[in-house]
Specification:
With about 300 residues, the protein is α+β, with helices and mostly antiparallel strands. The protein folds into two domains: about 55 residues, no CATH class; about 200 residues. It contains ten helices and six strands.
Length: about 300
């Protein structure tokens, strides 16, 4: 750190000394950029300072085994952006994602008539996501602190440490005892000249103990995985989105009545139309009317003629 600061101070002095003329200043700057030692020193100093700010670790006893878990819930400005940023940070710190559920949930909806033929629909939409991550245990604190720029309001932040050192020791003791038993039992079966059923029973017992040893080994592997990688559960949400939309109301005609004067005028027009249709109909059937009249007069004439004859 002191060496880096010294190099930077020397570089500043060198540039200041060269500022007497434009050509000498340019020459000094070019020489400074070409000096690989100075560039590497400055880069190392900057990297060290950045590492101090981002890489933080909780001190835990070196001879103990802990399972770490973390639960966080906080509000962000944009859930989609925060999700993508969290995925990038997960990869940066050597972890991986096992679950992500980003949803848009309708919280509330209202309809209001703003005019005779228009309706305003207002919707309140909640955007949220739940993530589950596996992060290397040594990077948990750095990862959690790197989420700070995304947070606008923190609901809770829970970090748990479960000491499983004794469980490690117990599994190791069980494994050692079962291995010793298997060796003795195998030697006993190979060297024993007994009946077939006695040998079969001994081999069945040996197989059962081998299965127990396998189960303990699997438990130890699962325990080791939980110690190396901690599980982080993150719930993120943002301020509700209010969506508004105006749509046409096609039902307004069914319950809107015209005024009295309009209805009277409509009745007059409809009556005139009916009268006109009747007149037109009568004009169309003039031939039939003429025939009927001729028949009536003919019958009357024949009746008079018949009476006169009598």
């Amino acid at each position: 750190m002191n060496l880096g600061l010294t190099v930077i101070a020397c570089a500043i002095v060198l540039i200041s000394g060269c500022s007497s003329s434009a050509e000498r200043s340019k020459y000094c700057a070019d020489s400074l950029m070409k000096d690989s030692f100075v560039k590497d020193s400055i880069a190392k100093v900057m990297a060290a300072e950045e590492a101090k700010l981002t890489d933080t670790h909780t001190n835990t006893p070196a001879d103990r085994k802990f399972i770490k878990t973390a639960e966080l819930k906080f509000c962000v400005r944009n859930v989609l952006y925060a999700t993508e940023k969290t995925e990038d940070l997960t990869a940066k710190y050597g972890g991986y994602m096992i679950y992500s559920n980003l949803v848009n949930r309708l919280e509330n909806s209202e309809r209001a008539n703003i005019s005779r033929d228009s309706i305003l629909i207002s919707k309140q939409i909640i955007v949220e996501n739940q993530l589950q991550l596996r992060i290397p245990t040594q990077n948990l604190d750095s990862f959690v602190r790197s989420l700070k720029p995304l947070v606008t309001f923190l609901d809770y932040r829970i970090i748990k440490l479960n000491d499983v050192t004794l469980q490690y020791i117990s599994n190791q003791k069980k494994t050692d005892r079962l291995q010793n038993y298997e060796k003795r039992q195998a030697q006993h079966i190979d060297s024993k000249s007994a009946k077939l059923h006695e040998t079969s029973n001994a081999e069945d017992i040996l197989l059962e103990h081998q299965n127990q040893a396998d189960e303990i080994k699997l438990q130890s592997l699962s325990l080791d995985d939980q110690v190396k990688y901690c599980t982080v559960t993150i719930d993120i949400y943002q301020e509700p989105i209010i969506a508004k939309k105006v749509i046409a109301d096609f039902n307004y005609v069914s319950y809107v009545k015209p005024g009295f004067g309009a209805r009277v005028w409509d009745s007059v027009v409809q009556g005139w139309n009916i009268l006109a249709e009747v007149v037109v109909f009568l004009v169309k059937i003039w031939g039939i009317a003429f025939l009927i009249i001729a028949i009536v007069f003919g019958i009357k004439y024949l009746s008079r003629w018949y009476k006169q004859i009598k």
